[in-house]
Amino acid sequence: MSLATVYINEQLALRPQKLPDYLREKNALHELASRMADKPEDMLPRFVDLAMEIAGGSSAGISLYEENPAPGVFRWRYLRGALAPFNDATTPRDFSPCGITLDRNAPTLSIHPERFYDWIADANIVVPEVLLVPLHFDGERPMGTLWIVSDVEGHFDSGHARALTDLASFVSIALKMLHSEQQLKQSLEEQSTLTKEMDHRVKNLFAMTDGMIRLTAKETATPLEMSRMLSGRLQSLARAHALANRGSHAAPHTAAQSPDLGELVKTILAPHERAASRYIIGGPDIACGERAINALALTLHELATNAAKYGALSTDDGQVEVRWTIDTEFVTLHWSEAGGPAVPVAPVTDGFGSQLMRMMIAGQLAGSLDYDWRPAGLAVTIIFPIGKLLA
User: Fold this and answer.
1) How would residue 218 be classed by pLDDT, with cut points 50, 70 and 90?
2) Which of 78, 171, 296, 334 is most buried (CB neighbours < 10 A)?
3) For residue 247, is it left (φ>0), alpha (ψ between -120 and 50) or beta?
4) End-to-end distance of the chain based on CA atoms, in angstroms?
5) 163-174 tens-digit pLDDT
6) Separation of alpha carbons 139 and 168, rounded Å
7) CB contact set of 281 (below 8 Å; sequence gap of 6+)
8) pLDDT tens digits for 201-214?
9) By C-alpha distance, which of 35, 27, 33 is closest to 53?
10) For residue 148, which phi and psi values (nearest 5 degrees)?
């Protein structure tokens, strides 16, 4: 049988039209509207039931179009009648009555399609006659097709096609409204999540700022000195906060949007860089969460500030190497200075900058910070659980 003999769309207009039941059609639309309001998840299965009743078919269902991977397939859903056991089966987009219906974008009548489509015959399905109506998600985007099977040839007419098209048009509008409602709900939920996230961040920043003010006040002798030192720390924190906040206006923060550890190191050290050769930075790519960003930013800022005052960055030939390694449990970050003034002896006690760093690493990252006061230059090793990096 050829394709031309399988599709007999002209018969819809030629066959005598049965007396339409407009009251039944109106009640069907009213019921679908009620379903959409009360139980929207039940609308499509009930749509199939009503279509099957109005058209007097023996089987019915919806073929939902899945476009990826191209050219896509149709998935049978909400099947009723004799074909119900085939629910969730798939059929080809470019070799099926559903595909022809979407291409025509009009009601389509087919007689014994199993005589042309081998996949129907292979499933031992006999379809004396089937009427298909295109479905659109928002009036334009193809969603699939509604189809009704009759056990006898000559059953469907233009009245059935009109009634099912009206039902399909209503469902298209209902689905668009439902989708808009779901999008609004999702937007409100995302906005609520962002508000909570920003509230948490602001509180965290205030707590950290309060701690820095207290430590800086004890560390400095004059208001001007305090202002300069505190300004540097706050600017470092601001740069870190900008990295952590990047992209969060569009969606809740995710690892895919989080800055890389290498990016964080370069951002914090950039203000201290007078030449490209001042730093050697390297390590594997890994994303950083907000808590880790803030803690590491302040720690790196303190190390760079001390290096600029007393260490490798206080001379023209000094150099700082920052490298990190990752294993299954821990992140290890090494800070190593060379080419600066010789280090005479290790300090007897920690300064307030060192206390701030230990507070950040231990308190925020549950890690450790160790100094090695080598004659060639300070070396610092920071170790913390890898899980804390994404926190």
Assistant:
1) low
2) 296
3) left
4) 65
5) 999 888 877 776
6) 10
7) 262, 265, 266, 269, 321, 322, 323
8) 455 555 555 555 66
9) 27
10) -125, 130
